[in-house]
# Entry
Amino acid sequence: MQFGVTKESQCHYLSEQQERLAVVLPEQFESLNADAYQQLMQYGFRRSHNDVYRPHCQLCSACQSLRVVVPEFHFSKNQKRIIKKNADLKLSIEQKPETEYSELFSHFIEKRHSDGEMYPPDADKFWDWVSCDWLRPELLEWRNEKGELLIVSVVDPTPDAMSAVYTFFHPEHARRSPGTYAVLEMIRLAQQRNISRLYLGYQIDGCKKMNYKARFAPYERLVGNHWKKELKSHLL
# Structure
Protein backbone atom coordinates (compact mmCIF):
# COMPACT_ATOMS: atom_id res chain seq x y z
CA MET A 1 0.00 0.00 0.00
CA GLN A 2 1.36 3.41 -1.00
CA PHE A 3 0.57 6.67 0.79
CA GLY A 4 0.88 10.38 0.16
CA VAL A 5 0.86 13.45 2.43
CA THR A 6 -1.36 16.49 1.91
CA LYS A 7 -0.32 20.12 2.25
CA GLU A 8 -0.97 21.84 5.56
CA SER A 9 -4.31 23.60 6.03
CA GLN A 10 -6.32 25.13 8.86
CA CYS A 11 -7.47 22.51 11.38
CA HIS A 12 -11.28 22.20 11.58
CA TYR A 13 -11.20 21.34 15.30
CA LEU A 14 -8.35 23.27 16.90
CA SER A 15 -8.18 26.82 15.55
CA GLU A 16 -4.55 27.33 16.56
CA GLN A 17 -3.31 24.26 14.68
CA GLN A 18 -2.53 23.31 11.08
CA GLU A 19 -3.60 19.88 9.85
CA ARG A 20 -1.90 17.50 7.46
CA LEU A 21 -3.12 14.06 6.37
CA ALA A 22 -1.55 10.81 5.29
CA VAL A 23 -3.73 9.41 2.49
CA VAL A 24 -3.97 6.18 0.52
CA LEU A 25 -3.09 7.06 -3.07
CA PRO A 26 -5.96 6.74 -5.59
CA GLU A 27 -3.97 4.16 -7.58
CA GLN A 28 -4.38 1.84 -4.58
CA PHE A 29 -8.19 1.99 -4.46
CA GLU A 30 -8.48 -1.28 -6.41
CA SER A 31 -6.76 -3.00 -3.46
CA LEU A 32 -9.27 -1.65 -0.95
CA ASN A 33 -12.12 -3.73 0.46
CA ALA A 34 -13.71 -4.32 3.88
CA ASP A 35 -10.81 -6.53 5.05
CA ALA A 36 -8.13 -4.06 3.97
CA TYR A 37 -10.02 -1.17 5.51
CA GLN A 38 -10.28 -2.97 8.84
CA GLN A 39 -6.50 -3.36 8.86
CA LEU A 40 -6.06 0.33 8.05
CA MET A 41 -8.47 1.33 10.83
CA GLN A 42 -6.20 -0.49 13.25
CA TYR A 43 -3.57 2.11 12.33
CA GLY A 44 -5.94 5.04 12.83
CA PHE A 45 -7.28 5.50 9.31
CA ARG A 46 -10.80 6.69 8.43
CA ARG A 47 -12.54 7.16 5.12
CA SER A 48 -14.38 9.95 3.29
CA HIS A 49 -16.17 8.53 0.21
CA ASN A 50 -13.40 6.39 -1.36
CA ASP A 51 -10.55 8.35 0.25
CA VAL A 52 -8.76 6.80 3.25
CA TYR A 53 -6.74 9.07 5.53
CA ARG A 54 -5.31 9.64 8.99
CA PRO A 55 -3.86 12.74 10.72
CA HIS A 56 -0.17 13.26 10.02
CA CYS A 57 0.43 16.68 11.53
CA GLN A 58 3.92 18.01 12.17
CA LEU A 59 3.35 19.80 15.49
CA CYS A 60 0.20 18.24 16.92
CA SER A 61 -0.98 14.75 17.91
CA ALA A 62 -4.32 15.70 19.50
CA CYS A 63 -6.39 13.48 17.17
CA GLN A 64 -6.44 9.96 18.60
CA SER A 65 -8.50 7.17 17.08
CA LEU A 66 -10.96 5.76 19.63
CA ARG A 67 -12.70 2.38 19.58
CA VAL A 68 -15.10 0.74 22.03
CA VAL A 69 -14.08 -2.67 23.41
CA VAL A 70 -17.40 -4.34 22.59
CA PRO A 71 -17.07 -7.70 24.45
CA GLU A 72 -16.17 -5.91 27.69
CA PHE A 73 -18.80 -3.17 27.46
CA HIS A 74 -21.51 -3.04 30.14
CA PHE A 75 -24.29 -0.47 30.04
CA SER A 76 -24.26 1.98 32.96
CA LYS A 77 -27.42 2.94 34.87
CA ASN A 78 -27.63 6.21 32.96
CA GLN A 79 -27.16 4.45 29.62
CA LYS A 80 -29.90 1.95 30.53
CA ARG A 81 -32.19 4.89 31.28
CA ILE A 82 -31.50 6.33 27.84
CA ILE A 83 -32.26 2.97 26.24
CA LYS A 84 -35.51 2.73 28.22
CA LYS A 85 -36.46 6.28 27.23
CA ASN A 86 -36.23 5.18 23.59
CA ALA A 87 -37.90 1.78 24.00
CA ASP A 88 -40.62 2.83 21.54
CA LEU A 89 -38.13 3.14 18.68
CA LYS A 90 -37.66 0.38 16.13
CA LEU A 91 -34.36 -0.19 14.31
CA SER A 92 -34.19 -1.06 10.62
CA ILE A 93 -31.04 -1.49 8.53
CA GLU A 94 -31.17 -0.13 5.00
CA GLN A 95 -28.73 0.11 2.09
CA LYS A 96 -29.90 3.20 0.20
CA PRO A 97 -30.90 6.65 1.50
CA GLU A 98 -34.54 7.63 1.23
CA THR A 99 -35.94 11.11 0.62
CA GLU A 100 -36.89 11.29 4.30
CA TYR A 101 -33.22 10.85 5.24
CA SER A 102 -32.19 13.89 3.22
CA GLU A 103 -34.97 15.99 4.72
CA LEU A 104 -33.98 14.97 8.26
CA PHE A 105 -30.29 15.59 7.55
CA SER A 106 -30.98 19.11 6.26
CA HIS A 107 -33.22 19.91 9.25
CA PHE A 108 -30.56 18.59 11.63
CA ILE A 109 -27.78 20.74 10.12
CA GLU A 110 -30.01 23.83 10.04
CA LYS A 111 -30.94 23.52 13.71
CA ARG A 112 -27.84 21.96 15.30
CA HIS A 113 -24.81 22.82 13.16
CA SER A 114 -25.44 26.16 11.49
CA ASP A 115 -21.90 27.14 12.53
CA GLY A 116 -20.27 24.02 11.07
CA GLU A 117 -18.60 23.15 7.77
CA MET A 118 -21.71 21.26 6.55
CA TYR A 119 -23.80 24.44 6.64
CA PRO A 120 -25.73 25.21 4.52
CA PRO A 121 -26.84 21.57 4.20
CA ASP A 122 -26.34 19.84 0.86
CA ALA A 123 -27.90 16.37 1.09
CA ASP A 124 -26.57 15.18 -2.28
CA LYS A 125 -23.03 16.15 -1.29
CA PHE A 126 -23.48 14.42 2.08
CA TRP A 127 -24.61 11.12 0.55
CA ASP A 128 -21.71 11.24 -1.87
CA TRP A 129 -19.37 11.77 1.13
CA VAL A 130 -20.65 8.71 3.03
CA SER A 131 -20.98 6.43 -0.01
CA CYS A 132 -18.17 4.10 -1.05
CA ASP A 133 -17.33 2.04 -4.14
CA TRP A 134 -15.27 -0.63 -2.36
CA LEU A 135 -17.35 -1.08 0.82
CA ARG A 136 -21.13 -1.11 1.40
CA PRO A 137 -22.13 1.20 4.27
CA GLU A 138 -25.19 0.36 6.34
CA LEU A 139 -27.88 2.93 7.13
CA LEU A 140 -29.38 2.42 10.56
CA GLU A 141 -32.74 4.11 10.99
CA TRP A 142 -34.93 4.42 14.08
CA ARG A 143 -38.64 5.22 13.88
CA ASN A 144 -41.25 5.65 16.59
CA GLU A 145 -44.54 3.79 16.81
CA LYS A 146 -46.14 6.30 14.44
CA GLY A 147 -43.52 5.51 11.81
CA GLU A 148 -41.82 8.90 12.15
CA LEU A 149 -38.11 8.90 11.31
CA LEU A 150 -36.13 10.20 14.31
CA ILE A 151 -32.52 9.01 13.93
CA VAL A 152 -30.24 7.87 11.10
CA SER A 153 -26.69 6.55 11.50
CA VAL A 154 -24.27 5.62 8.72
CA VAL A 155 -22.02 2.70 9.69
CA ASP A 156 -19.18 0.91 7.88
CA PRO A 157 -19.21 -2.85 8.58
CA THR A 158 -15.99 -4.91 8.32
CA PRO A 159 -15.38 -8.58 9.23
CA ASP A 160 -14.64 -7.95 12.93
CA ALA A 161 -15.46 -4.28 13.44
CA MET A 162 -17.94 -1.50 12.82
CA SER A 163 -17.09 2.13 12.18
CA ALA A 164 -19.53 4.94 12.97
CA VAL A 165 -19.43 7.41 10.08
CA TYR A 166 -22.12 9.98 10.92
CA THR A 167 -25.36 10.29 12.90
CA PHE A 168 -28.13 12.85 12.55
CA PHE A 169 -31.49 13.09 14.29
CA HIS A 170 -34.68 15.07 14.74
CA PRO A 171 -33.63 18.19 16.70
CA GLU A 172 -37.01 18.48 18.42
CA HIS A 173 -36.41 15.11 20.13
CA ALA A 174 -33.12 16.07 21.80
CA ARG A 175 -34.48 15.07 25.22
CA ARG A 176 -34.23 11.46 24.12
CA SER A 177 -30.41 11.84 23.93
CA PRO A 178 -30.59 10.47 20.37
CA GLY A 179 -26.86 10.76 19.64
CA THR A 180 -25.93 8.74 22.73
CA TYR A 181 -28.74 6.28 22.08
CA ALA A 182 -27.49 5.66 18.53
CA VAL A 183 -24.01 4.76 19.79
CA LEU A 184 -25.47 2.45 22.46
CA GLU A 185 -27.54 0.74 19.79
CA MET A 186 -24.45 0.32 17.61
CA ILE A 187 -22.73 -1.35 20.57
CA ARG A 188 -25.71 -3.67 21.06
CA LEU A 189 -25.69 -4.52 17.36
CA ALA A 190 -21.94 -5.20 17.48
CA GLN A 191 -22.48 -7.50 20.47
CA GLN A 192 -25.19 -9.39 18.58
CA ARG A 193 -22.81 -9.83 15.65
CA ASN A 194 -19.92 -10.92 17.93
CA ILE A 195 -17.85 -8.01 16.67
CA SER A 196 -14.93 -6.99 18.87
CA ARG A 197 -14.52 -3.25 18.16
CA LEU A 198 -16.70 -0.25 17.35
CA TYR A 199 -14.66 2.65 15.95
CA LEU A 200 -16.01 6.10 16.82
CA GLY A 201 -13.53 8.23 14.91
CA TYR A 202 -11.03 10.67 16.39
CA GLN A 203 -11.10 11.80 20.00
CA ILE A 204 -9.77 15.32 20.58
CA ASP A 205 -9.68 16.21 24.27
CA GLY A 206 -9.40 19.92 23.51
CA CYS A 207 -12.57 19.92 21.39
CA LYS A 208 -15.81 19.76 23.40
CA LYS A 209 -17.85 18.61 20.40
CA MET A 210 -15.73 15.44 20.19
CA ASN A 211 -15.67 14.48 23.86
CA TYR A 212 -18.91 12.47 23.82
CA LYS A 213 -16.93 9.53 22.44
CA ALA A 214 -15.05 9.09 25.70
CA ARG A 215 -18.30 8.26 27.55
CA PHE A 216 -18.36 4.72 26.16
CA ALA A 217 -15.77 2.97 28.28
CA PRO A 218 -13.98 0.64 28.24
CA TYR A 219 -12.41 1.97 25.09
CA GLU A 220 -8.99 2.06 23.46
CA ARG A 221 -7.12 5.07 22.11
CA LEU A 222 -4.42 4.89 19.49
CA VAL A 223 -1.51 6.69 21.14
CA GLY A 224 1.43 6.77 18.80
CA ASN A 225 1.16 3.35 17.16
CA HIS A 226 -0.16 1.51 20.20
CA TRP A 227 -3.72 1.01 21.45
CA LYS A 228 -4.06 2.07 25.08
CA LYS A 229 -7.07 0.78 27.01
CA GLU A 230 -8.95 3.14 29.30
CA LEU A 231 -11.56 1.69 31.65
CA LYS A 232 -13.29 5.01 32.25
CA SER A 233 -13.14 8.49 30.82
CA HIS A 234 -10.99 11.06 32.58
CA LEU A 235 -13.09 13.77 30.91
CA LEU A 236 -16.32 13.06 32.83
Remarks:
- The mean pLDDT is 95.
- The CA atoms of residues 113 and 119 lie 7 Å apart.
